[in-house]
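## Example pair
The file below holds two records. Each record gives the amino-acid sequence first, followed by its structure token line.
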Amino acid sequence: MKSFKTVDDFISGQEKWKDELVYLRELFLNTELEETVKWGFPVYTINNKNVIGLGSFKSYFGVWFFQGALLQDKKKVLINAQEGKTVAMRQWRFDSREEVDEPSLMSYIAEAIANQKAGREIKPEKKKPLLIPDHLQQAFDKDLSLKQSFEVLNLTKKREYAEYIETAKQESTKVKRLEKIIPMISEGIGLNDKYRKS
């Protein structure tokens, strides 16, 4: 996905929804929010805190509320686009300009601004500490170079390996999984690297 430096670049770089994005942008600029670009997308802030964002995709355009889970959502229009991953953020999607209910949208934005000013926010849960399963620890105790190879992996890869062993229900499965991952760890390969985009 292309990264844009300015909101004008973002809008002109869209194949679809240009007029709709200009329309929403004008609404946002009539609030006290400040316009910026983060992660290549237009973001509107107050006191340097993200309040809303502007987005455009093939089948819809919309508004991201960074703390949308705190909104009353009287119209029941907000969705969590990444269920299980996103705790606070919510989207309001539109597939035409006619679908934009301006008074309701401005009411949602006003509520989002008020929440941010009041310091109301949902903070992401802190990750639990990395726990090494017994089988993996025993392998490290027997092979120091394996432990050293594991130590240089990033935290995500370490967690994936630990969970892979820990989630096996049977003892025999834990042993088989351990046998599978030892060479991968030694080579510095993550368990799910083949699924990751390079």
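Second record, same layout:
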Amino acid sequence: MLADWPSLLFNALGWGMATFLVAAGLTLIFGILHVLNFSHGGVFMLGAYVAFTLTRWSGTGGLASFLGASLLAALATGVVGLAVDRAVFRRLAAVDGAYVLVATYALLLVCNGVAKLVWGLNVFSAAPPESLMTVTVAGDVVMPHYALFVIGAGLSVYLGLEWLLNRTAAGRMIQAIAADPWMARLLGIDVGLVYTGTVVLGFALAGLAGGLLVANQSLSPDLAGIFIIQAFGVVIVGGMGSIRGAFLASLLLGLVDSFGSALLPSMPGILFFVALALVLLVRPQGLLGSGRLA
């Protein structure tokens, strides 16, 4: 119960970082294209399937193999993002945003169809790397090493995006385009190239999240919808397009979900939706919503 608050805090941190891994690419694409990519969950699922397949082919259970498979899954979904940008986003750039939403939902259906065609309807399970199957006990808190790894991965992705957006020339161009693409074009920035790079990075982050979290899920075509509701909630609460807001929201909603499950064990997840509704009523622009990608 609530007396076991250190364990609840650890679970909240694990939930938050896992959800942020999924939400990072979604936030990035919305921040610059202002498109809610409904296919994000499907890309996450394909990344998980690719990483699972590569790990099984390698025949090893080591951490290096696991990380390598996750990075290759990110590369594969990044290539998918390049194709989607050329075939969908660029072609629909001049039309009403509703058409883009319909197109991304259609892409989600395509991802589900590809998963069923290639891997079938069977449910697979993947074990974490052997080095992450142990636990550390600190007082009354049992900390699985795989959960610690996911927390570290979420923090690493956040710090990497912070560095990219706020410490590099590419990041400054991304922020300039997110704020005013017309003025950025007048300043000589290749807006189309930055758009493409952002889409590729967003899709790659979705694939990376799928690879890193595959050992935490039952792998099936239903995987596309497991994390995506939480990811959309994080993006909305944090402020549409704000990386820092998504990170903060993942922590806060993780706390809400963890303590809510302890308070109301018969209705797990209910406080997550209550918190989401309250934020939308009190601060509809989100915690850090400012129209700035940071």
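Notes on the second record: The radius of gyration is 19 Å. The chain is about 70% helix and 5% strand.
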